Amino acid sequence: MSENENDQKRLEIGKILRKAREEKGYTLDDLQQMTKIQKRYLIAIEDENFDELPGDFYVRAFIKQYANTVGLDGNELLQKYDDQLPQTKTEEYSDHLAQAVETRANQRKTVSGSVDKVRNYMPTIIIACVIVLVLAAIWITAIARNHRDSSTRIDNSSVSVSGESRKKAATSAKKASTKQSKSTAIKLQEAPNRNDTSVTYTASQLTKDTTLQIEPSDRSWMQVRANNNDLLNKTLNNNEKTSVKISRDTTSLVITVGNARATKLKLGNQEIYFTNNGRYQNTRNVTINFGNAQTSSSSASQSANSSSQASSSSARPNNATQPSAANNNSRPQTSASQQNNQPTR
Question: Is residue 83 domain-shared with residue 196, that is, in the same domain?
Fold first, then answer.
């Protein structure tokens, strides 16, 4: 084959590679990015300026990589144009190969040495890690225990303080309530001029409105007057409880009871023992003087009798226990009064 034919065949390699690249639509920049071959070497391959490549070894390697990237068979292309390409088994190729082998051997030796060192120190490293983990666990446990103990002490202290505070508050409230109830309780002092049918009490002036509670256990007629004003005038049936509001400006309270033995009176939640625990079963006129409005027993009796006589003219239900104006002592004509001479139950 002549020299011109060799040159023409040689130039076909560059054209073939360029044509395949263009058919793929790759630019030299794209190909450089894909093959990691510098652009100037790619241009030298297409122009078949193989002298510009680093050496004969790289000529074949770059051409093969170029061909495979653009979709050609690199080995087939190298075999077809083997005569026109530089031979790789030159002294330069041997030097590169020897250098590569030596480098890889050194790398393997270095890696092997590093692995051996790691293997030698591995037990020590593992033991150290275990010790660190154990110490960390002990430290965390101690912190958690101290925190829990502190919280428990604080809670116990809070509970103790709270309990003591509640006890003190309850005791103070109880004392205050007892003191208040004692101070607000109405103290009745019985006058010495008591008789079988009437009784008079004196008490301090009321500081606030209070309530008179009437609790009959049998049918009974009741009349309540405050400052000569009627507050109640009616017959109460068996267990018919009722209450009357007593104003704080009351100076004289007169209560007429038709059935004393079967009636219970409470003034401000304090019971009035007007029968002296059953000793005076016929007591039916109860007078309470508040403040300085105190009268003699005769005046109180006359006032109670007059109020009883004034109310006798009003209509009363049959069989009701009521006072009688015919009797100077104003004794009620009831079955209860007729049994005065019988023993007290």
Answer: no
